[in-house]
Specification:
Elements lengths: L1 E3 L3 H9 L3 H7 L4 H7 L15 E3 L5 H4 L7 H6 L12 E7 L7 H17 L4 E4 L5 H4 L3 E3 L6 E4 H11 L4 E8 L2 E3 L9 E4 L4 E5 L40 H18 L18 H6 L6 H11 L3 H13 L5 E2 L5 E2 L1 H7 L8 H14 L2
Parallel strand pairs: 3-4, 3-7, 6-8, 7-10
Antiparallel strand pairs: 1-2, 5-6, 9-10, 11-12
Helix pairs in contact: 1-11, 6-9, 6-12, 12-14
Length: 364
């Protein structure tokens, strides 16, 4: 295992910049906000809020995909990055295919994702598009030759999203419980995005704890070869059971991919939700939230108060009530949802403690 530890001076320059105008902008943060952001300089010390990046093998993202680290200055000066504006300030989420049996639990799961995204990108509106079936997208699909599970083609899904993107959208993201592939020569892909068009699609299929096991329920019979355009094969197709680890992994992936829409590249400074990942074990090592450098990038793009954002995330973890709506507009009462389908946040326990520690600094 290799630990990546940047010199303090390097981290200071990456966060503050060596540009006078950006240093002046940084000084607009309160003393408490600067104290939180500068906690990153202590990474590696016992009790620090932020941790160092660990590389466990050559198959991890950083050795496999060499990239130039993006500091705050290069982010700020990037002519291609986009930020929300009054006419484009909504994140749209489009569900594709089944997320489980129709009913309050499945609807609530999608609402949990929307609400988490709303808190994470504090200050922006996050809305759900009406759900669509795989057949409605008219996308190409195949049976994976290795695992014999169904997969749908990302490029076709992005074209579908392009036609559905509302005028007030900052971005639109498609989410699905069906595995993805970008082209015939690839085995799979977790997701794919077009940053210039503010679109992305990603799958939660491989976040099932049993996906790689021999008894994975999503495997089809080897003799089954669906015909092109016969979308009936998706009717009743397996979807992962809703559990705490699936919710955590879904929230992490969704916010990572949307983070790219702001022009935030893969992080190589500190342990961060914006780190790249090549496999599930590496993705699980990433924290749920930003390092200070990437947090500053998002904050200047959206303009939120840092403490308010952490409070919103903490409230999402603690709030397990409120009605949810079915696709036809009917609502389930809070008692129905909370009694039978409480939000499974057990896997978020460490994150909750971390948010509380951040707020202790910000509310001194």
């Amino acid at each position: 295992m290799k630990v990546i530890q940047r010199p303090v001076k390097t981290l200071q320059t990456a966060l503050l910049s060596d540009s006078k105008d950006l240093i002046k902008l940084y000084r607009k943060y309160t003393d408490q906000e600067r104290q939180l952001l500068e906690e990153g300089f202590k990474a590696g010390q016992q009790g620090c809020l932020f941790q160092l990046i660990t590389v466990h093998s050559d198959s991890d993202w950083i050795p496999a995909h060499p990239e130039e680290p993006q500091d705050f200055r290069s982010f700020w000066r990037d002519p291609h990055r986009t930020s929300p504006d009054p006419a484009h300030n909504t994140i749209y989420i489009q569900t594709i295919g089944s997320f489980g049996e129709a009913g309050p639990q499945t609807d609530q799961y999608v609402q949990w994702l929307r609400q988490y995204c709303q808190a994470f990108f504090c200050g922006l509106s996050v809305k759900l598009m009406p759900p669509v079936t795989v057949a409605e997208t008219q996308c190409s699909f195949r049976v994976n030759s290795n695992l014999h599970n169904l997969q749908i083609l990302t490029g076709d899904l992005l074209q579908f999203l392009a036609h559905r993107k509302p005028k007030d959208a900052f971005c639109i993201v498609g989410i699905t419980m069906i595995d993805l592939y970008p082209k015939e020569s690839w085995n799979f892909v977790f997701g794919q995005a077009s940053l210039s068009m503010g679109m992305g699609v990603f799958s939660f299929a491989r976040y099932d704890n049993h996906f790689y096991s021999r008894n994975y329920t999503g495997r089809l019979s080897k003799s089954l070869q669906p015909k092109k355009g016969d979308y009936s094969v998706f009717d009743g197709y397996y979807t992962p059971p809703i559990c705490s680890s699936l919710l955590l992994r879904s929230c992490k992936t969704m916010t990572h991919e949307i983070g790219h829409m702001f022009g935030i590249r893969h992080c190589q400074w500190l342990s961060c939700v914006m780190q790249g990942s090549n496999h599930l074990e590496e993705s699980d090592r990433r924290p749920l939230d930003f390092c200070p450098i990437c947090l500053r990038k998002l904050q200047v793009s959206v303009g939120f108060n840092i403490a308010d954002r952490y409070k919103a995330l903490l409230q999402w973890l603690e709030d397990d009530h409120g009605p949810t709506r079915t696709p036809d507009g009917a609502s389930y009462t809070s008692s129905q949802v909370s009694l039978h389908y409480p939000k499974p946040t057990e896997a978020f326990h460490d994150y909750k403690l971390w948010l509380q520690r951040c707020l202790e600094i910000l509310e001194k």
